[in-house]
Design brief:
- With 560 residues, this protein is of the alpha+beta class.
- The chain folds into 4 domains: 6-142, Histidine kinase-like ATPase, C-terminal domain (Heat Shock Protein 90), CATH 3.30.565; 155-240; 258-453, no CATH class; 454-555, no CATH class.
- It is 53% helix and 13% strand.
- It has 19 helices and 12 strands.
- The strands form 3 sheets. A 6-stranded antiparallel beta sheet has the order 1-2-3-5-4-12. It has a 3-stranded antiparallel beta sheet with strand order 6-7-8. A 3-stranded antiparallel beta sheet has the order 9-10-11.
- Strand 10 and strand 11 (366-371) form a beta hairpin.
- Helix 8 crosses helix 13, helix 13 runs antiparallel to helix 14 and helix 17 (457-470) packs across helix 18 (485-520).
- Residues 243-248 have low confidence and may be disordered.
Length: 560
């Protein structure tokens, strides 16, 4: 059945509730609802509208409510949208079982019974804050006759979105774990049971049919696991559906202009060719060679230490007197980042992973290379996953050694290549320090995530810390406090150390550069340091403020 969307806007008054019920009955007849389905949906909508009208009357709010009905195949979606000025927040209602016939009326909380009646009738209930409006979304899935009590997830016939890739783990294992990836959006780690379901999603078989097949192949599992898997796939936008092509042409053009992203065709073939050339570097002897190249840079540093310090102190003046400096430095950094990303990709390919994307994107006012090695998450051995993360750093360390030798060759000339090479080495060392810092979302961080087994470690730790230190100010949310004892311990340590390390990472280099500039630079370096510090603070605080404001104005809660 095609989508049958109807929108009704009406005043919040008791006399209009009968009109709502009649509209639902006529809509149900047109789209072919069964009497049982129509009764469940009508009863739920009436409960919600009556409560909204009651709360609006108490608050003195005289605004309309919008009812949107949509039937897509076997799914009924009902959105009830009302003003945020109406003090009705279903997500704050405490959970409890709907009372039975023997329960005393004195023991029933009549103020929240309406929501629990809805939860009993409907399959899924969501509450969304959308700026000045709130929306209560009710979802009901069709069942065949005689299966009315079947879990809602069993009725769905799921299909993966086009472009979503499944990377299987151990090829020898008949039923391996896997990594599911939506290119450029995110990755989900799946256990063998979840992998079985995802592999067999074709849009034709229902979850119930897949469940019976799973029972024969892998044994018993629970509908709750299927519901969780479906919601994770849905939340990551990995499921096919009418919504997947909604992005308009104008939005795609704006995105391409504001944030251009150019992916090299046949990226995996390109990385495979690079792997053939660089295969010897993936061996222990090759890694030793890269390490030796990096360590050899200590020789020119020892020989030209004083000159290098002079060049660093004179960088501020050189930027204004040597116009070739910045373009040359930019090209050197682009080449270095390209080699760094290829280092990750080649190691990933060495262990049999697929590299679906390799290209150039615009990030933080600069063009950078990227290499998608998400397939490494499905590698069965942690050693392999760690080596993929270290591959880029090993290449960068070798590049640093070569750069220091080149800077030593130009030492004392005073020409722009000398300043460009020293600045390049300085930035490369800073990049290596960042990659080795587990408190920044770079290589060392992902190694730590792999070792702890806690995804989104940084965000979850800081949310946990915020919840447990500033919760009395209304910051943080209940989700942040839900963690196991082991996770809570890790969150405390990581959150505290991570916050201190992040401050130190930026503060210590700035203090040392300030000392260097103040003693050896003609201008004291105040202009350069002020611009750098101000830019970092504006970007960081701006992103934080935007995220907080948006999270307050646009958020979604799972009621059931």
């Amino acid at each position: 059945m095609e989508s049958s969307r109807v929108r009704i806007t009406l005043p919040l008054a008791a006399q209009w509730l009968r009109f709502v019920q009649e509209s639902l009955q006529r809509y149900s007849a047109i789209v072919g609802f069964s009497p049982e389905l129509e009764a469940m949906c009508s009863g739920s909508v009436m409960e919600a509208c009556e409560e909204i009208a009651r709360k609006a009357g108490e608050a003195g709010v005289e605004e309309s409510v919008t009812l949107q009905l949509d039937c897509k195949g076997g799914t009924v979606v009902i959105d009830i949208t009302y003003s945020a000025g109406i003090p009705l927040n279903p997500h704050e209602t405490e959970d409890y079982e709907v009372p039975d016939e023997e329960t005393s009326l004195d023991a029933i909380d009549m103020g929240t019974l309406w929501l629990h009646m809805i939860k009993r009738r409907m399959d899924r209930v969501r509450f969304m804050v959308q700026g000045p409006q709130h929306t209560l979304r009710l979802i009901k899935y069709r069942r065949d006759a005689g299966k009315e009590k079947q879990a809602w997830v069993m009725t769905i016939r799921p299909e993966l979105r086009k472009g979503v890739e499944l990377h299987l783990g151990d090829a020898v294992d008949g039923h391996p774990a896997s990594t599911l990836q939506r290119i450029g959006k995110g990755v989900l780690l799946l256990d063998p049971s979840q992998t079985f379901f995802v592999q067999n999603m074709d849009g034709k078989k229902s979850f119930h049919e897949l469940y019976m097949e799973h029972l024969d192949v892998l044994g018993l599992t629970s509908p709750a696991m299927l519901a969780m898997l479906y919601e994770r796939l849905e939340g990551m936008g990995m499921l096919a559906g009418p919504e997947e092509e909604k992005a308009g042409r104008l939005s795609r053009i704006v995105k391409a202009v504001v944030s251009p992203n150019v992916s090299i065709p046949n990226a995996d073939a390109v990385v495979t060719a690079m792997h053939r050339l660089a295969r010897p570097l993936c061996t222990p002897w090759g890694l030793a060679l890269l390490a030796a190249a990096g360590l050899s840079g200590l020789v020119p540093v020892a020989r030209h230490h004083e000159r290098f310090v002079e060049v660093v102190a004179g960088l501020e003046a050189a930027v204004t007197t040597l116009p070739q400096l910045l373009p040359a430095l930019y090209v050197l950094m682009l080449a270095h980042i390209a080699l760094h990303e290829l280092g990750h990709g080649v190691v990933c390919k060495h262990f049999g992973g697929r590299v679906p994307r390799l290209g150039v994107m615009f990030y933080l006012a600069s063009f950078i290379f990227y290499c998608d090695t998400s397939a490494a998450w499905s590698f069965p051995q942690k050693r392999q996953r760690v080596l993929v993360s270290l591959g880029g750093g090993a290449v960068s360390f070798a590049v640093l050694g070569v750069g220091l030798w080149c800077a030593g060759a130009w030492a004392g000339t005073g020409a722009w290549p000398e300043y460009a090479l020293v600045a390049f080495c300085l930035l490369t060392m800073a990049g290596l320090a960042m990659n080795c810092n587990p408190f920044i979302k770079m290589d060392a961080y992902y190694i730590l995530v792999d070792q702890t087994g806690i995804p989104n470690l940084r965000e979850r730790s800081f949310r946990f810390l915020e919840r447990n230190t500033l919760g009395w100010l209304g910051l943080g949310n209940a989700e942040a406090g839900r963690a196991t004892l082991r996770e809570r311990r890790i969150f405390w340590w990581y959150g505290i150390l991570g916050g201190a390390a992040t401050l130190g990472f930026f503060a210590i280099p700035l203090v040392r550069l300030q000392h260097l500039f103040s003693t050896q630079s003609t201008s004291g370096g105040m202009l350069l340091l002020s611009l750098l510090t101000g830019s970092l603070l504006l970007v960081r605080l701006g992103r934080y403020a935007y995220g907080k404001i948006r999270s307050l104005r646009f958020r979604e809660y799972k009621i059931q």
